[in-house]
Write a structure and sequence with these properties.
This protein is globular. It has helices at about 25-30, 70-90, 135-145, 315-330; strands at about 5, 45-50, 120-125, 175-180, 185-190, 195-200, 215-225, 225-230, 260-270, 270-280, 290-295, 300. It starts with a strand and ends with a helix. Strands 2, 3, 4, 5, 6, 7, 8, 9, 10 and 11 form a ten-stranded antiparallel beta sheet that branches. Strand 10 and strand 11 form a beta hairpin. It is of the alpha+beta class. The protein has one domain (about 5-90, about 100-325). It contains four helices and twelve strands.
Length: about 325
Amino acid sequence: MTRMRSAPVAIFGWLVVAAFAAEPLQAQQKTNWTPPKTAWGDPSLEGTWTNETITPFERPTALGNKAFYTPEEARELESSAAKRREDSDGAPTRPGDVGAYNQAWLDAGTKVVSTLQTSLVVDPPDGRVPVTAETVAQKKEYDERNGEAPEFMSPWDRCITRGVPAGTFPAGYNNAYQILQFPGYVLIHYEMIHNARIIPLGGRAHKAPHVKLWDGDSVGRWEGNTLVVDVTNFNGKGWIGTSAATGRMRGVVQTEAAHIVERFTRVSEHTIHYEVTIEDPKKYTRPWTVKVPLERDDSYQFFEYACHEGNHAVEHVLRGARAGEKAAGSR
């Protein structure tokens, strides 16, 4: 039966991260597997891939340097997550809270990532992003000023972009990516905000430094069976994390100095290992790395993500903030 996925209109990045059904870890660890080739000889990454997971973006501090769960620990976490999802649909809301979407609108699976990582951040060894004190202060300011002006809201909330690499970090829904290849190009179609990212290959030079882009300038090359994508030329307005699934990274601005290196390696018929290293000296004390398995799902069906057409939420957030200020001033 075809999997039918919902595509809510203009819903926000504060939704919790969902889970996916992954192939066995042993199947991913085969070293003698040879990826198929395109008609012109490049390793094939083509297909529809998903990455929903209950694995946290950063590692809980209580786990220290514990990099992997045991299979038994993973099963226990998955059981607890399933129980929380079941309970959430019937939970009462606070006075004045209109509530959120129920599980029918989310990609809520049951699994940690197939590698059994305890966090998606794998370097530094503690699984925590090495933020500066200034970064923490900037994120706090944006949280506090969210209703002041659109510029303090997420680019996702504003229907602009989820960003690079933020668009490949799991969110609460619409965690699908369609990869298409052409001679000299790789195209990634993101289900969220229907973004089509075109990556030229062959070691092309980046655009001139004065050309600044929301998603940066991507230039790709093949290193064996791995697609390596170098990304620069950010405009300094995007966020490194646009979904609540990225925890404290949601709201951290990606500066013009950001440098991103992504690696896509197909390790089996059904799995691509996605790895990204983020360097932004104005935000972090050192580079840091995220790894997320992408799992193939040929039955997944994309629907249009018509974000702007129904996005009244930004207006309502701003109106609500003004109403709150007016009420505070009248007291």
